[in-house]
Fold these 2 entries.
Entry 1:
Amino acid sequence: MKFMKLGTKADTFYTEQATRTLISEIAADLVIQINDITYLLHKFPLLPKCGLLQRLCYDSSDSESVSLELHDIPGGEEAFELCAKFCYGIAINISAHNFVSALCAAKFLRMNDSIEKGNFVGKLESFFNSCILEGWKDSIATLQTTATLPEWSENLGIVRKCIDSIIEKILTPPPQVKWSYTYTRPGYTKKQHHSVPKDWWTEDVSDLDIDLFRCIIMAIRSTYVLPPQLIGEALHVYACRWLPGITKLKSSGSSVSQTEESKEKNRKILETIVSMIPADRGSVSVGFLFRLLSISIHLGVSSVTKTELIRRASLQFEEATVSDLLYPSTSSSDQNYYDTELVQAVLETFLKLWKRMSPGAVDSSYFLRSIRNVGKLIDSYLQVVARDDNMQVSKFVSLAETVPSIAREDHDDLYQAINIYLKMHPELSKADKKRLCGILDCQRLSPEVRGHAVKNELLPLRTVVQLLYFEQDKGSKATSSHKLPKPHEILMGAKDRAATTRDTQSKHSLGPAKDEFNGEEIRERDQQKTKRSDGKLALNLEKKMVIRGDIAETQSEKGRVVRDESSSSGKVNMDPKKMIRRARSKSEHGVKK
C-alpha cells in the first residue's frame, strides 16, 4: 500500500497522566480537551492553519491562555493529533488506514488552502486522488474505514469515489489486471498460473461491511458485464468469510451474549446475500443454498427469505450430492444429528414444481431423468441418516414415502437403507419394524437383492413371507415359460386322466402289451403333475400368510390344510417355520440355477 509522509521534525509528543503535550521551551497557551485527553499546545503553530481555532480564539489576546473543548471532532483525539503534528511540522505518515479520519478532522478544523496555501486538506485530497483511488487494495482499505465515520465520508464523497474506483477495476478484463490482489483458493499458486483468474477480486471485496459490499455487487449487476456465476461466486466467498459454520452455531447456541449480539448481525448478512443472488439458475451451487438454508433456521430469518432459499434449492435439487444435504440439526428439541426436515421441505417443493412443469413438457425424458436422480439421491441420503442412533422411524419413513413411485426405478437402494437402519437399531419394536419395511416393494427388488433379503434375519416375518412368495411366483412363471401346465390346465388334465384310465381298463383284457406301457407313462406324468400341485399348495399357504398378516391364524390354517392333505395323501410337515425354511432353501436352489 502507498503512503504519504509529511513533516520532518522528530515526534516530541509525550503523555503525562491524562495529558498530552510536547517538549518545548515555550509555555503552553492553548488547552484543548477531547474526550478524556487534555492537550497542552501553542497558538502560534495551530492558529495560522486552523480556521476553526482562529474563530474560537478571536476574542482572546495573544498572551492569554485559551481552553477549548472539541469533543465532537471526527476521528477523536487520534485524528486531532495528526492535524496538530502537521501544524508543528512533525513527521507523520498518511495511508489508506488513517486517511479518512485525518481528512474528516482537517475539514472539521477548516485546514483549507483558503486559510493557508499548501494546507493539510489540499495535501490529503491530492494523495486520495493520485494514490488511493489508483490502487486496488488502497481503495478497498479506505472504503472499509469509512464505516467508522459514515456520514462524514458520505458527505465528503469518499464512499462514492472509492466504490466507483473499485467497480472500474472489477470490470477490467483479467489480462489487463496489473495490481496486487488476494487470492488464496486451495491448490492455486501464482507461480504456476500466469493468467489472472476471473474471480480475482472476490476475496478483497469480502473484507467490506455488508452494506458497502451490497453497494458494489448491485452496481456490478446493473452493468450486465459479468456473468451471474461470477456474482454468485462473490456471494459465496463473502458468506464463507462472515457467516459461522453450522457446527460452531450449534456449539455456541447456549451462549446468551453470543445469541443476542451476533444473531442480528448474521441474520442481516444472510438476508442481504439471499436478496442479491441472481435469478439465473446455476448462479450459485445447490450446496451453497443448502448451507444458507441450514444457517437461516438457526438464525431465525424471515419467512420470505427461508421460502426463497427452499424454492431456489428445489430448482437445482437434482444437481445435489449426498454431502450437500448432510447438515446437522440446529433445533434444540430435535435429538437427531441430521436435519431431515430441511431435506424433506426442499423435496416437497421440488415435487410441486415437477408436477406443475412435467405434464406440458416437450421433452418428457428430461423430467423422468430429473425425478429419478432425486429419488436416487434421497435413497442414498437415507442410507447415511440411517446410521444416526437417534433417527426416529417416523421421520425416516416420512422422508422415504415422500418420494413418488415413479422416482424409483427399483427398490434396491431403499432396501439397503432399511437394512442399515435395522442393523443400527437392534432394539426396534415389531410394530416399528413392520412400519419400516412396509415402504418396501418386494416386487421391485433385483434378483440379487431379493436373494439377500430372503436370508436377512433382521427383516420381520411378514416381509420374509412376501419375499418368498414373489421369489417362488417368479420361479413358477419362469417354469411356465417351458410349457408347464397352468392351474386350470391341471384340472382339465385330471379329467383327461380319468377318461384315459377307463379306456385303459377296458382295453386291458383285449389290448397288447403296448397299451400297458402307455398306461405306465400316463401314471408317471400324473405323479409329476401331483408334485407340482403340492408345490402350488405350499405357495398358496404362504400367500394366505401375507394377506392375513396373523401368524397364529396362518399356523391354524396350515394345520387344517395339512390334516386334509394327510387324510388323502399321507404325512405333511405341520410346522410353518420349517415350511419357510424349506421354501428359503428352494429359493436359494432356484437362484443358484
Entry 2:
Amino acid sequence: MEPPDAWARTRGAPRLLVLALLLGAQPDAQAEVQVSVPPLVEVMRGESVALNCTPLGVHDYFMLEWYLADRSGVRHRLASGELRGSEIQGGVHSSRGRSPPYQLDSQGRLMLAEAQVGDERDYVCVVTVGATVTAEATVRLQVFAKPEATEVAPNRGTLSVTDDIAQEIATCNSRNGNPAPKITWHRNGEPLQVPMEVNTEGYMTSRTVREASGLQSLTSTLYLRLRKTDRDASFHCSVHYLLPKGQHGRLDSPPFGLTLHYPTEHVQFWVGSPATTEGWVREGDSVQLFCRGDGSPSPEYTFYRLQDKQEDVLKINLEVELSNGEELALPLGGSLATNCSVKGLPTPTLRWTKDSIPLGDGPTLSLSSVTFDSAGSYTCEASMPTVPLLSRNRILRLLVEGSPELRPEETLPKAEGSWTEGDEVRLVCSARGYPEPKLKWSQAGGHPAEPAPGGQGWVSSSLTLKVTSALSQDGVSCEASNPHGNARHVFHFGPVAPQTSQAGVAVMAVAISVGLLLLVVAAFYCMRRKGRPGCCRQGEKGAPPSGDPELSHSGSQRPEQTGLLMGGASGGARRGSGGFRDEC
C-alpha cells in the first residue's frame, strides 16, 4: 500500500505540468532567444541594400531595434518595430542626416537606398522577447566603388641611359575607388617587379588620399634605370580593384614610349642600289648611299665625297620652317591653320604629330574650336623615305587663352551624418587656363599651386583641415582666377556629429554650472537672513511655547512660509511683536 504522501504527489503532478506549460507560453518565461544576421553585407556604391535581422524560433511577440555604431562604439537608435500578427510595425526614429533616409520594412529589414561609402559602418540589431530577454547581432556593411578611368602621365623629357641612377618614368593615377585599389607597372606586356624601397635599379612610390566623399584615390610613380633596349619599349600601368563576392576588376592605362638619349657608338655605311658583286656602277646610274648610327635621338648625318684628296659635302640635309613661328596663342574656341615648309633632295615627306600621336600627313595643320585640351606642342616631322633615319623636326607651341576651368578632386560630399567633429579631410582643387590661373581657398592653410599629375595644363592646390560644425553650414570654397575670369567651387560636408568625449564634457559642464548657481542662491538667501537681528537663533525672549506657535495674520501659513515670503519691513514688524522664532 502506497503511503499517503505519495498519493498527494501523484495528484499534484498534473497541476505542476499545467503550470509549466503556462509558464512556457508566457513571453516573460523565455530563457533564451537567438538572432540571425549576415555578418557582412557587400554592395556597389549607388545601389540599394537591405539589412536582414531574423529571430530564430517561433515567437508570438517580439520587439526589434536597429542601432548604428559609430567609430567610438556609441550606439545611435535608428529604427524600431513590434511584431503584430505576421508583420513588423514600426518606423524610423532618426536617419542622422542621411539622404535618402533609412526605412524599416514589414519584415524588420533596415533599408538603405543609394549606398554611399559613408554607410560603411556596423549596424546592430537588438531583439527583445518579453520584458528582460534580449539578443543582438552585428552586421557590417561594405560599399565598393569602381575607380574612374586610369590616367598616366609619362615623362616627356629626354632620358639618358648613361645615368647610373633610377629616373622618373611616369605617374599613374586612379581616382575615386573603394576600397583603395592597387597599381602595377608593365613593360612590353610583362609586369615589372619593382620594390617600394629606393635603389639605383628601379622602384615605385605610392600615395593614397581619402577624398571628401570618402572615396579613395591612389597615385603611383615608377622609377627605372634605363637601357638602350628601352628605346622601343612600350609601358603602361594597371589598376586592380575589388568587387563584391570576391571578384576583381582591372583598368589599364594607354601605352606610352620614352625618348632616350645615348651617344652613337657604331656607324654603318653601304650602297643600296644598284648593287653589283664587284661594287661597280655605270656612269649616269642613280646610286643610293645609306648611313646609320645607333645613337638616340636620331643623329644628324653628313655625307662627304672624296675626290682628288678633297672632301666635298653633299647637300642633303633638310631645312624646315613654320609659317606662324614656334609659339602661337589662340582664344578659347578659336581656329588655326599653319603650314610647315621643307627643302631637300630628294623631296621629303611631312607629318604632324602631338604627344607622339599622328594627326595627318602634309604641310598644313588645321584646328577648329580649340579647347584647353588643344594646347600643347605640335611637331612637324620631315623625313626622306629613301634615306632611313634622316629627319628634321620643328615644334609649334600652342597656347589657348581663356577663363579658368575648375576641377575639384571630388565634387560629391561624404555621406551625410558620417563626419565627426575633429575629423581630418584633405581637399584638392585643380584648374587650368591661360594665363595660368591662381588658386585661392576660403580657409587658411592651402598649399601653393603646382603642376597636377596627368599634365594637360592642370595646376592643383590642396588644403588639409579639421571638420567643424561651422564648416558643415558654410562649406569650404576654392576659387581659380586669371585675367579672363574666375571659377569657384564649394565643398560641402553635411551634418557634423560632436565627438563623444566632447558631448560628455558639455553635459558635465552644464551640471556643474547648475550646481554652482544653486549654491550661490542658497548662500545669498542665508546671508540675507543673517543680516536681520535674531536670525538663526533658537528663540527670543517672550516667545510662546514651542508646542503652541501662534498663527500668522492669514491664519493658514506656517512660520517657515511666512519667514520666506515676508522681507524688509514686514520682518521688522514681526521682531517687534516677538511672535515667531526665526529659522535659517
